[in-house]
């Protein structure tokens, strides 16, 4: 079927009252970015729908991209015909021939009319097309509730639009409508999922990744970049900020008792992320913590780490079971990458028995006792590197045989 447009229905957007215009504008920008490279199509964002007029561009390929844009509830590939019943009958036959098959099936016609001057009103159109289909497709019968096929017909001023599919979109809110947040991205399973969920709620994310050469390899850094590329289709491109953490980790290891190594390291990570957030004009920090998963994620641990900032910390996976997080990771295709066993900066300096219930006063005390905390933080900030990552970028050879050899 040669579709002429894709009709896009907005998600929660419709309920947002006075913010509506800003939301539609942002969605328009995001759709435009997602459809970059399709030169013929034109995007018309209207109050209640968005019309993507294809002008010959490939409808299937366009829908593939739309599928990753948050703020879209559903969309329908649509054919526009001239405003006369011969043209409507003709197209109805074509569409039905495409989908009816030979088995007995049920159908209904659902007409909407915004042009009230058209010769048939909504009811007459439903009856006329219903009869037409019954006459031409003997295996079809009418059913009003839950039919197998629903042919939607929209009579508008500039033409008549026919569609028979409503494809579920990504849902959520257009990325950017909720402002910007810094995602603390490790190479693990949880933080990419947290990033996806934050974007789904309209947060524009920038990645902050701590790495510790020579204790961590280029592969570990490239894995975090590759994960970023996996999340990029939802926004076009994502800023990746790599933060050198070696000196801090060595110093913490030297100065802090083993039980508090992890807590104090995490306090440094959070302080640095918060400073980067200010530099980048972010409003929040997002991480992949889930209550009780590991030693660093007990509530006591969160208290002792969170102490370094009052910035909102969003933890999208905080109450999920590991199995639920893994399912999300599989759905967004980050799982296979996440389980590649490259060393992470935290695991390398992880004590064998970190305190699962660290005390806040102790954590503060051990950190205060360290020399030149400000200098450590400043040198790390001086060493950050910022790059833009697109979905087409690759940083890692993901061929399993090659990986096996590297390990
Ligand atoms: N190297 C890192 N760079 C940036 N953020 C990190 C790094 N390591 C950990 N984090 C942040 O701290 C959170 C908790 O990390 P931790 O290793 O304790 O838990 P995790 O459950 O294994 O998380 P993940 O699966 O995301 O690695 C991570 O989800 C991430 O947001």
TrEMBL record:
InterPro entries: Rossmann-like_a/b/a_fold (IPR014729), ThiI_AANH (IPR020536), ThiI_fer (IPR054173), ThiI_N (IPR049961), THUMP_dom (IPR004114), THUMP_ThiI (IPR049962), tRNA_STrfase (IPR003720), tRNA_sulfurtransferase_ThiI (IPR050102). One of its GO terms (biological process) is thiamine biosynthetic process. CDD domains: PPase_ThiI (cd01712), THUMP_ThiI (cd11716). One of its GO terms (molecular function) is CCA tRNA nucleotidyltransferase activity. Its EC number is 2.8.1.4. It comes from the Bacteria. The keyword Nucleotide-binding applies. It catalyses: [ThiI sulfur-carrier protein]-S-sulfanyl-L-cysteine + a uridine in tRNA + 2 reduced [2Fe-2S]-[ferredoxin] + ATP + H(+) = [ThiI sulfur-carrier protein]-L-cysteine + a 4-thiouridine in tRNA + 2 oxidized [2Fe-2S]-[ferredoxin] + AMP + diphosphate; [ThiS sulfur-carrier protein]-C-terminal Gly-Gly-AMP + S-sulfanyl-L-cysteinyl-[cysteine desulfurase] + AH2 = [ThiS sulfur-carrier protein]-C-terminal-Gly-aminoethanethioate + L-cysteinyl-[cysteine desulfurase] + A + AMP + 2 H(+). ATP binds at residues 184-185, 209-210, 266, 288, 297. It is found in: Cytoplasm. Its main location: cytoplasm. Pathway: Cofactor biosynthesis; thiamine diphosphate biosynthesis. PANTHER family: TRNA SULFURTRANSFERASE. Catalyzes the ATP-dependent transfer of a sulfur to tRNA to produce 4-thiouridine in position 8 of tRNAs, which functions as a near-UV photosensor. Also catalyzes the transfer of sulfur to the sulfur carrier protein ThiS, forming ThiS-thiocarboxylate. This is a step in the synthesis of thiazole, in the thiamine biosynthesis pathway. The sulfur is donated as persulfide by IscS. This is Probable tRNA sulfurtransferase. It comes from Lactobacillus selangorensis. The lineage of its organism: Bacteria, Bacillati, Bacillota, Bacilli, Lactobacillales.
């Amino acid at each position: 079927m040669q579709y002429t447009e894709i009709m896009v229905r907005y998600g929660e957007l419709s309920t947002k009252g006075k913010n509506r215009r800003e939301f539609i504008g942002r969605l328009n920008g995001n759709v435009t970015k997602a459809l970059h490279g399709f030169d013929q199509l034109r995007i018309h964002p209207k109050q209640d729908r968005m019309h993507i007029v294809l002008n010959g561009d490939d409808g299937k390929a366009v829908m593939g991209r739309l599928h990753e844009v948050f703020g879209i509830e559903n969309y329908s590939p649509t054919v526009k015909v001239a405003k006369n019943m011969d043209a409507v009958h003709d197209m109805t036959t074509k569409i039905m021939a495409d989908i009816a098959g030979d088995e007995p099936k049920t159908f209904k016609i659902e007409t909407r009319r915004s042009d009230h001057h058209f010769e048939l009103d909504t009811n007459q159109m439903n009856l006329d097309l219903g009869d037409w289909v019954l006459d031409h497709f003997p295996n079809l019968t009418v059913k009003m509730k839950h039919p197998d096929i629903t042919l939607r017909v929209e009579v508008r001023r500039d033409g008549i639009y026919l569609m028979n599919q409503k494809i579920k979109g990504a849902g959520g809110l257009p990325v950017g409508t909720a402002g910007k947040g810094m995602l603390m991205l490790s190479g693990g399973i949880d933080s990419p999922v947290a990033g996806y969920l934050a974007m789904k709620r309209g947060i524009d994310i920038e990645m902050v990744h701590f790495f510790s050469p020579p204790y961590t390899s280029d592969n570990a850094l490239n894995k975090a970049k590759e994960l970023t590329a996996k999340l990029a289709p939802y926004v076009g491109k994502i800023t990746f900020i790599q933060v050198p953490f070696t000196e801090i980790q060595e110093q913490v290891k030297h100065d802090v008792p083993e039980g508090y190594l992890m807590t104090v390291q995490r306090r440094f990570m959070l302080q640095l992320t918060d400073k980067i957030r200010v530099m980048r004009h972010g409003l929040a920090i997002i991480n992949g913590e889930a209550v009780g998963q590991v030693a660093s994620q007990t509530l006591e641990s969160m208290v002792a780490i969170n102490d370094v900032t009052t910035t909102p910390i969003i933890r999208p996976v905080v109450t999920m079971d590991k199995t639920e997080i893994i399912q999300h990771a599989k759905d967004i295709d980050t799982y296979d990458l996440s389980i590649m066993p490259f060393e992470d900066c935290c695991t390398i300096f992880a004590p064998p028995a970190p305190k699962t219930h660290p005390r806040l006063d102790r954590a503060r005390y051990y950190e205060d006792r360290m020399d030149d905390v400000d200098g450590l933080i400043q040198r790390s900030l001086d060493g950050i590197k910022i790059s833009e990552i697109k979905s087409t970028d690759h940083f890692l050879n993901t061929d399993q045989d090659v990986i096996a050899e590297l390990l």
